[in-house]
Amino acid sequence: MQNSEPQKIYLKDYCQPSYWIVKTDLNFDIQDTYVDVSSKLQLRKNHTVNNDRLFLHGGELELLGVALDGQHLDETAYHCDKEGLTLSGLANEHLLEITTRIYPAKNTSLEGLYQSRLMLCTQCEAEGFRNITYYLDRPDVMSEFSVRIEADKQTCPVLLSNGNELERGELEAGRHFVSWHDPHLKPCYLFALVAGRLSYVDDLFTTNSGRDVLLRLFVEDKDLDKCQYALDSLKNAMAWDERVYGREYDLDIYMIVAVDDFNMGAMENKGLNIFNTSCVLAKKETTTDAEFQRVEAVVAHEYFHNWSGNRVTCRDWFQLSLKEGFTVFRDAEFSADMGSRTVKRVEDVSLLRSLQFAEDGGPMAHAVQPDSFIEISNFYTLTIYEKGAEIVRMIYNLLGAEKFRLGSDLYFSRHDGQAVTIEDFVAVMSEVSGRDFTQFMRWYKQAATPELSVSASYDEQQRTYSLNFKQSCRVTAECEYKKPFLIPVDISLLGEAGKLALNVDGLTNTESEDNTKLMLEIDQAEQTIVFNDVCEQPVPSLLRGFSAPVKLSFAYSEDDLLRIMAHEDDGFCRWDATQQFLLQEINAIRATFKAGNKPSLNPRLLELYTSLLADQDQDLSLLALMLTLPNEKYLAELDTQVDVDAIHQARSWLELELAKALQPEFLACYQRLNELAHEPYSADAQGVANRSLKNKALHYLALDGSTLGLSLAEEQFHAASNMTDELAAFRAIVHCMEVDNTTRRERALVSFYEKWKDEALVVNHWFSVQASVAAASTLDDVKALFKHEAFDSLNPNKLRSLVGVFCNANTWCFHAKNGEAYRFLADEILRLNKANPQIASRLLTPLTQWRRYDGVRQALMKEQLERIQAEPSLSKDVFEVVSKTLADK
Ligand code: TRP
Ligand code: ZN
User: Fold this and answer.
1) Gap from CA of 302 to ligand 1 centroid (Å)
2) Which one of 161, 221, 264, 680 is CB 3.0 to 4.6 Å from 147, fit for a cystine?
3) Is residue 377 located within the same domain as residue 470?
4) How far is the CA of 748 from the centre of ligand 1 (A)?
5) Residue 343 scores a pLDDT above 60
């Protein structure tokens, strides 16, 4: 909370600290209402910095005492304010002892040490450690940690920290202690502590070199039956990292703790991961297929951080994507290997296009290696994570699997135990490949999404086919003139009968024997590639596998798109062709409505869907995705000025018309797949595929509110033995607002809640389904649900499932032209600004896009943004987003 304006921090100002902390000895004395933290820091002068002052970060801490080399210091011997503690006139080595008192039960920000239900736990990344004690809270200060925890044995039987348990013992008055030692050097953001009443499930993993690692998952007693899937995922991830990256785990125990109140998905603290319950607990009765996949991915992600993040960490927070981009790339490849590679790719690209592209297009746009920030928590973004992973993927594709592995081996061996930069990562890739990455580095330094527009000409006489590429990228705050990116474009040319052999002067395909595909490297603002010996007018299949995170435009005709669907073996491109087809269709429908006419369903689209539905031998999950219309968010992202009403009208019309026209096909599909419902549940790719297509069919069948569709949904709702089927049916019923459906709808709402009221994560679905109803009454329902007994207005998962879903996934309602929803969101942000700034700031996201709407909506959104900005004690988090948003031109 600021009196003066928060300051920007710049990458160019980076300098090393004046002291290192060689050893960190912490003692936590846990009492009922407070915790006393005493820390002993072994300081050693950093001789490369000429400065005898030491500044230690500290938040709102109660300072109980400071001693230097055993001598108590009085208040005149140091300076202490709300930013931290400064000591001056220091020598080369010291032992600094500091005692602070903190109040975890009052900490609603969920940063630092806080209470979640029956336990105390920590979240230190990025800068939460400073809320525990005064410290050099920066990732380049790596220290050897020893931790002793003492507490009441009744309320806190379990006492955990990083590394190995050293000692435990009984103390007077029903108290006990446990001490821990972590042999690996680490920055304080990887510190963790957990204390409370917890149960656990154990498992075992034997490493490639034959060491046994104990895997222990701590949960509340009631959740013991939801642990095995995460443990299995962990073992798969450990084996995968040995096989694919040659990386073994490096401690004898790996602990995960599940907590209910958590700002993000999970945290990779060394040897002691802390997870949001939503990303670790799973069993078929309460968990959907999408959530099973999320658990598998997040468990793997945090595990992979042990190397990409912990053993090799970030020099400063501008390097955040060094660990996050690389680790997301690693977990995406892992998920692709565990399930359907194509579906994983399609899901990731959809996320990137609808959300990351919007971020790149808005006022919070930043480079993957940003050059400044006010509050680092605001930079845990889709750009850092997802675009960062796309950049690593491009490097992987440019180098090929083998050289990339050589590069990662060199990275881990050269930088083990160090805090490094993105440049260090790229340097190893350059070294092993001999490739110059100078131009490629622009992907890290220049913000916003490049646009690549492609046009073609065919010369029948010369038998040449020319593709002209033009790239551009919008101006952003950090850089006015964007230099051209190096854009890898994976390409095939499709003739009438299939793929053509490719022949481009001076280019050979080094990575594969297949001469029908090529990785072009587009590196100029404009350039033309000429293909020789092309004996018929081809259709270009561009950006295969989504080989670069760009907005591609090429004027495809319907015939072109059908040819891609017929002849392209890359599943991503086939899916993308269906999406292109649908986008063109939605645009045509919008134009028809706008002209005051009634649209009609394009028979070719119908024909396409009919034939897709008839083909049984394909990846059924991919088929389900092909049958999914682009969402309103993505459609908005493609509009120059977003017209929410026109988008909603056209998309809903098309979906309903498809539902009606294809009813027999959907019914046959549903019935065929529903036969399999009695087979034993499996979360493997096949099981997931069957259920996703079946539930897609059910969605269409129930869309028109017909008795047929709704009674199938009701039947499935009652018969379901897994949450995927149960929730899909529940959603189909609740989302149908026809008057005839009122009784059925209300019955479903009551029975679902009664059945699941003791399962917090399932109740969150119950909130989300109601928050995403596309009806004018939804905002009032959301407000009413705030008062529901199961709602907790400080729990991030609850807030996400109600406020987050309403404001982000229910685009049409959120942007209702009376501005009510904007006011509602601003009220929530102002309430959370004090209680939980990270969540408050994240909830702001939909308002950051205000400039993209019509004048009326812009004014309404601006009014609320200004109301937020006028709040006298804005957190840095909210301040940064609101001020950048209002400064948007
Ligand atoms: N490092 C975590 C991850 O991506 C991210 C994270 C977890 C985080 N909790 C946080 C970031 C709280 C900021 C604040 O795996
Ligand atoms: Zn991460």
Assistant:
1) 10
2) 161
3) no
4) 36
5) yes
Our mutation pick for probing the ligand 1 site, out of 263, 275, 308, counting the most ligand atoms within 8 A of Cβ, is 263
Statement to judge: residues 364 and 422 lie in one domain: yes
- Rounded to two decimals, what is the model's pTM? 0.98
- The sheet that has 19-30: what strands, in order across it? 71-72, 62-68, 93-102, 35-45, 19-30, 143-152, 175-186, 164-170
Interior CA angle at 102 toward 100 and 107, to 5°? 150
Tens of pLDDT, residue by residue over 405-449, are 999 999 999 999 999 999 999 999 999 999 999 999 999 999 999
- Higher-confidence residue of 776 and 616: namely 776
Residue 300 beta carbon below 6 angstroms from any ligand 1 atom: no
- How far CA 586 is from CA of 630, 646, 661, 779, 823, in Å, comes to 9, 10, 17, 27, 31
Ligand nearest to the CA of 268: 1
Q: What percent of the chain has pLDDT over 70?
A: 99
Residues 434 and 471 in one domain: no
477 and 420 assigned to the same domain = no
| pLDDT tens sequence across 437-489 | 999 999 999 999 999 999 999 999 999 999 999 999 999 987 889 999 999 99
**Ligand 1 midpoint to CA 576 (Å):** 32
> Which of 122, 125, 320, 381 for a ligand 1 pocket mutation test, highest count of atoms within 8 Å of Cβ?
125
Is 432 inside any structural domain?
Answer: yes
End-to-end alpha carbon distance in the chain: 27
> At which of 533, 554, 575 does a domain end?
554
Name the closest ligand to CA 842: 1
Average pLDDT for the chain: 97
Rounded average pLDDT over 270-282: 99
Domain encompassing residue 358: 312-445
Q: Report pLDDT digits (tens) over 131-141.
A: 999 999 999 99
Instruction: Identify whether residues 505 and 406 lie together within a single domain.
Output: no
Catalytic-residue membership of 302: yes
Same domain (yes/no): 316, 437: yes
- Residue 526: which CATH number? 2.60.40.1840
Tell me, yes or no, whether 691 lies in a domain: no
Query: Domain containing 369 — which CATH number?
Result: 1.10.390.10
**Would the CB of 125 count as within 6 Å of ligand 1?**
yes
Is the CB of 321 within 6 Å of ligand 1? no
**Could you report the per-residue pLDDT of 659-686, keeping only the tens digit for each?**
999 999 999 999 999 998 778 898 888 9
Report if residue 156 sits inside a domain: no
Question: Number of folded domains in the chain?
Answer: 2
Q: Determine phi and psi for 134, rounding to 5 degrees.
A: -70, 130
pLDDT range class, residue 1, cuts 50, 70, 90: very low
pLDDT at 571: 97
Q: How far, in Å, from the CA of 327 to the mean position of ligand 2?
A: 6
CB atoms under 10 Å from CB of 144, counted, come to 17
Residues 332 and 391 in one domain: yes
Specify the pLDDT at position 683. Answer: 86
Of the residues 111, 150, 302, 665, which is catalytic?
Answer: 302
Tokens read off for 581: 């087809």
| Unique residue bearing structure tokens 């468990």 | 299
User: 182: Cβ below 6 Å to ligand 1?
Assistant: no
Report the nearest-CA residue for atom 11 of ligand 1: 125
Residue 123 Cβ inside 6 Å of ligand 1? The answer reads: yes
Looking at residue 3, its pLDDT comes to 55
Tokens 């204390």 sit on residue: 195
Regarding the beta carbon of 380 and ligand 1, being less than 6 Å apart is answered yes
Any atom of ligand 1 within 6 Å of the Cβ of 263: yes
Give CA torsion, residues 364, 370, 373, 375, to 10 deg: 80
Residue 591 has pLDDT above 60, yes or no: yes
pLDDT of residue 511 exceeding 80, the answer is: no
Measured in Å, residue 324 CA sits from the centre of ligand 2 at 5
Give 510's pLDDT tier (boundaries 50, 70, 90).
low
Tell me if 110 is assigned to some domain: no
Q: Does residue 386 have its Cβ closer than 6 Å to ligand 1?
A: no
The answer to whether 494 and 541 have CB atoms below 8 angstroms apart is: yes
| Atom 7 of ligand 1, nearest CA residue | 267
pLDDT at 2: 44
Sign, CA dihedral 424-51-136-42, equals positive
| The residue to which tokens 């109740």 are assigned | 763
Q: Which of 445, 472, 500 is the last residue of a domain?
A: 445
- Alpha carbon of 887 to ligand 1 centroid (Å): 28
